[in-house]
Amino acid sequence: MTTSSGRQLALAVALSWLAWVPSAATQDRAGEPFLFGITPVFMVDQTAFLAGFGPYLEERLGRPVRFVRRKSYAEITDMLLRGELDAAWICSFSYVFNRGSLPLVAIPVFEGEPYYQSYLIVPATDGDTRGYGDLRDKVFAYVEPRSNTGYLYPRYAIAQLGGDANAWFRETFFTWSHPDSVLAVADRVADAAAVDGYIWEVLRRGDPALTERTRVVSGSPKFGFPPIVAGSVLSDEAQARLAKALLGMHRDPEGRRLLDLLYLDHFMAPRDEIYDSIVDMLPAVMPAVE
Length: 290
Description:
The longest helix is centred in the first third of the chain and has 16 residues, at 46-61. The protein is built from twelve helices and 13 strands. By secondary structure, the chain is α/β, with parallel strands linked by helices. Helix 2 (46-61) packs antiparallel against helix 11 (253-261). Strand 1, helix 2 (46-61) and strand 2 (65-69) form a beta-alpha-beta unit. The strands form three sheets. A six-stranded mixed β-sheet has the order 2-1-3-12-4-13, with helices on both faces. A five-stranded mixed β-sheet has the order 8-7-9-6-10. The radius of gyration is 19 Å and the shape is globular. Helices cover 40% and strands 19% of the residues. The two termini are 13 Å apart.
């Protein structure tokens, strides 16, 4: 297990590697729209959820809410750090890279836990693959470069086998969303993919005809669920209002309806330590860390 000092060093190297510079801005945008960042990577059915989530937040924040969509976690995270967004729902990997710069606001709870897994999936007709060791020289679909379950973990799993993820597969490509990675495997465009287990389970409930064309080979250890974080410009008061709105959703009829659209139990208060296991993987996949 990586020590606390090891984690700090891993983060320092990773931050240097990506050259992300946080914004120094701290003031709130009083009276202006609340800008909430999202990507197509994480949520399955954004339209139905956001149609209700916007008004729900507006009523409780006392500000108009505008959702800002970008393709990747990197774009959303950079906007948070530059002070261009008030909050966002980001990947746990993106959060770990910016601990200390992006305050945790709330963490989703799914099936009783604030955790999720990376699923290794293959076409349903593939009955032979038992793990990453069987995927040498195969075609593999990554989700996107800042995805924990769809990029970091599979590269870590290969490193644990003594391999180099850059040379392990015959071909790799990015799909830029977990559902699209599932589709790529179902359509046999890819021989395998690593996807967010929560997303796969939600798809299994809502689109079983798709997931039945895939097979879950294995699940990773559990990681802290992708959180909602505050941007560098959001005041403490505004953060508190946002946290109150999210943490109380399951006790409100409309909030309960919105959570049910995502198959979530509720949001819980921040627990930063649940993301330590992601930090522990960094030395194996980033530039060498002593």
